[in-house]
Amino acid sequence: MLSITPAFFAVFAIGLLELLLSACWSKTYWHTGFPLLRIKKPIRTGKPPLDLKNLSQRLLDDGYSALVFHQFKTDYIGFRESMRPIIGGFNYTPLLRGTLEITADNQVQVIGKLNWFPLSFSSLFIWLSFVLPSQKSEFLWGSMLLPLCLAGMLIFIFRIQRKRFSRLAELVAN
Length: 174
Prior knowledge:
It is a single chain. The protein has 174 residues and is α+β, with helices and mostly antiparallel strands. The protein has one domain (5-173). The chain has 5 helices and 5 strands, in the order ααβαββββαα. The chain has helices at residues 5-23, 27-31, 52-58, 116-135, 142-173; strands spanning 35-42, 67-73, 76-81, 96-102, 107-114.
């Protein structure tokens, strides 16, 4: 019989480590990562003053958790979804953390970098959908259906975040 307990502990540990690095605004965590989304918008009126509190408030009306910001350098800002759950809105595990940068050629660049926990959870989920059916023949349908459901959920969350990151880039560029 296959023991999946170490895999669950590994995914839990990855999630906890990422939570700590994200909450502490670790420079290494924010400056590294696999970029999954890149949005560039030209700045229309000179270099915009970045009031992060105002920016966060302007993005609150979309029914999702707030975006929180941390300024690493004058023109380099990290942001992520707030860790507080919202009541009456839609909560989800974010796939991406973001960086916002004002480039030398006067453009706003928003980069979404892949979070570790969704990657590790998805890998475990896909691995389990192929391992478990091999042990019990009645779960054969799960080896095809479960990864498709996971893919649909990940695409749905990615589209939400892409829309939110685009809106952020648009707000800073105007």
